[in-house]
Amino acid sequence: MDSRQRSIFYRFGALLWLGVLAACRAAPVSVAPVTSTLPNILLVTFDTTRADRIGCYGFPLARTPAVDRLAREGVRFADHVTVAPITLPAHASILTGLNPPAHGVRDNGAYALGDEVITLAERLKPLGYETHAFVSAAVLDRRYNLTQGFDTYDDELWAEDDPALFMIRDRPAPRTASRVLTWLETWSAKRRPFFTWVHFFDPHQPYQPHTRQGYLVPTPYDAEIASADEGLASILARLEQLQVLDNTVAVMTADHGESLDEHGEKTHGLFVYDATMRVPWVMRFPPQIPQGVVYQGPSRAVDLMPTLLALVGAPEAPAIDGVSLLASIRGESKWPALPQYHESLLAETGFGMAPLFAMREKGFKYIRAPRPELYDLAADPKETANIVAALPDVAATMSRDLDALLASSEAHAKPASVQVLDGETAEMLQALGYLAPAATRAAMTQKTASPSTTCLRRHGMPASAATGRAQWIVRKPRWRCRPTT
Question: Higher model confidence: residue 440 or residue 263?
């Protein structure tokens, strides 16, 4: 059958098995085991991976053959962005199709996804999918409730090597990939359609490469990306050996990028410039996606879930922020001019200062801060020349559009579970630069500290730092800039 007939077949099968998902979390739908031609779905997320450090995105020194293969044999989204420069909120958006104001998870550690939010795994299970997750860092462990809809959720990291003092416990890509391969051996005996999410944490600092290709890449950060790519390659190779790769929607994306000292930020978390917001998204599925497509329109983390649902013929998810891009990928319609939303609440939740909200639209980026910023992304891709004073009408229009976008997300918002940080989690977040000590946060709030990116850049303040560095930064008197007018 051709791709259109296959899509109709998938949709018919989906309607038979799905049932109706209520606006709030419904009771599990009981279904019999399915032996259908529904495709498998493999979603692989690399942590902390900039798009411009991937080979298919133009970085000639990259060693990312697995990611490059998915792009070469499928589609690469050239202008793809995440919602937040931090792991948990970004993954919550990937798995729900909702912006952070809608799903309620605004930072690492202190929030958990609410039970009323319906995840991609929950939408796929009633079709007959078995659902599995393999995560590689404690910031995504089950306490944060991304487990919703997964039959298994492998977050058992205590057998891993002890991290440096107060640093985050994680599992390197070779070990996570090995656990996925072990599961595939069990799966191969029954061959039910699967949705499997695999998370590789390697590119997150501290950079401790586990790749065999370390000598071929320019920096330890690039070696960590290569290590994650090797993990992806091993899974793709096993699917190919099992002769199911071509019936698997294989997706790679990232939660956020890494500043690498751009704008005075060493790693990520505080600012919303493209260094941390522009990330890769590549996808391969030969029955429905032509080879070598470069999707030039704007795409967002929230668009991934509805696009995957469309690929398997599932009904559209109601009341979400993302849209399916499948028709545009196939060339059946022009790509939509989607506004791309960013936020960072780390300044507020971690350091007691005002948050940042931003939007990319029509070639510009507007950042709502105590001192607003506007950038022409075509003329100034590194976002170094703030032109808000030169183009006040553009800034005003984008500010109104940002208000409308926030109102749209908040209209279908679900409550998140706000968690009290335990001592170990608080220490870990402080060590990573995600949280200032409570006394420092209180002092900053009392002094009405500004998170103005201009202020922080003027003083050379990196937002994320190694152990001890974050506390040194927030205690320096010069951090406490006066509010801008």
Answer: 263
Q: Classify residue 211: in a domain, yes or no.
A: yes
Q: Is the pLDDT of residue 350 over 90?
A: no
CA–CA gap between residue 172 and residue 211 (Å, rounded): 10
**Per-residue pLDDT, 18:** 39
Are 103 and 96 in contact by the 8 Å Cβ rule? The answer is yes
Helix, strand, or coil (residue 359): strand
Cβ neighbours of residue 101 closer than 8 Å, sequence gap 6 or more: 343, 406, 409, 410, 413
Residue 390 located in a structural domain: no
∠ CA 42-316-300, rounded to 5°: 60
CATH number, domain with residue 223: 3.40.720.10
Q: Where are the beta strands (DSSP E) in 362-442?
A: 364-368, 373-376, 417-418
- pLDDT tens sequence across 372-420: 999 999 999 999 999 999 999 999 999 999 999 999 999 999 887 665 4
Cis peptide before 206 (omega within 30 of 0): yes
Largest alpha-carbon pair distance within the chain?
A: 68
The CA–CA distances, whole Å, from 130 to 32, 122, 154, 318, 485 equal 12, 10, 14, 23, 55
Q: Domain of 72?
A: 3-20+37-338
Interval 257-282 mean pLDDT: 95
Beta-bridge partner residues of 117: none
Q: What is the chain's Cα-based Rg?
A: 22
Name the residue among 202, 211, 117, 163 with its Cα closest to residue 412.
117
Residue 155 belongs to a domain:
yes
Beta bridge partner(s), residue 199: 45
Average pLDDT, the chain: 82
With beta carbons less than 8 A apart as the criterion, state whether 113 and 103 touch: yes
Does residue 361 belong to any structural domain of this protein? no
Using alpha carbons, list the distances in angstroms from residue 221 to 51, 59, 258, 327, 409: 13, 13, 9, 36, 34
Is the model more confident about 266 or about 480?
266
Q: What angle do CA 108, 173, 107 make, to 5 degrees?
A: 5
pLDDT at 34 (0 to 100) = 36
The whole-angstrom separation of Cα 430 and Cα 437 is 7
Q: Is pLDDT above 60 for 466?
A: no
CB 451 within 8 A of CB 270: yes
Calpha distance 70→288 (Å, rounded): 14
Please tell me the total count of domains within the chain: 1
**Cα separation, 215 vs 455, whole angstroms:** 39
Confidence (pTM) = 0.82
